[in-house]
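call fold(seq) -> tokens
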Amino acid sequence: MKKILLLGLAVIFLAACEKQKQQYFSESPEIETVKVGIKAYETQDWTTWKANFADTAKIYHNTIKGITPDEDLEDIQEMISNLSSYKFDEKETFIEMVIDKDDETWVNYWSVWKGKLAANNQELTIPVHLTMQFINGKIVKEYGYWDSAPMVMAFQEIASAKMEETTENQ
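ret:
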């Protein structure tokens, strides 16, 4: 009985000493890919930006309907055409990589996006969260969440002012 108890304790001790698989990372090739993609977005290097995505990638920004990187790029370019400048605040940025229980690799990106409207120099500050799933070093899914209301309202104000100006000039 004593031997069984000692054997049981030894098994428990060895199991407790087993090294756990690392699941959280602050540095990884995938994190570097995200940093390169953010820099490419800020400098409008669309070739580099698009190279981070798999051919079958789907992007879900504030929606449950996925679009392709090409479709997302069209939306981005339309939006930034109304800006004189934009960037993410490096001081307000946090990035981590997680390998989840299903062995999927995800990179989470939290930051604050700042942009200036070309029409009136109004500055917009919007907190952003992106989470990207990677397979073989490429983004296969990207989810993005932010409050788009400040930008929508600013664009509506600009459109209203233009309409009012047009009406006055007639």
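Helices lie at 2-17, 29-43, 46-51, 69-80, 149-168.
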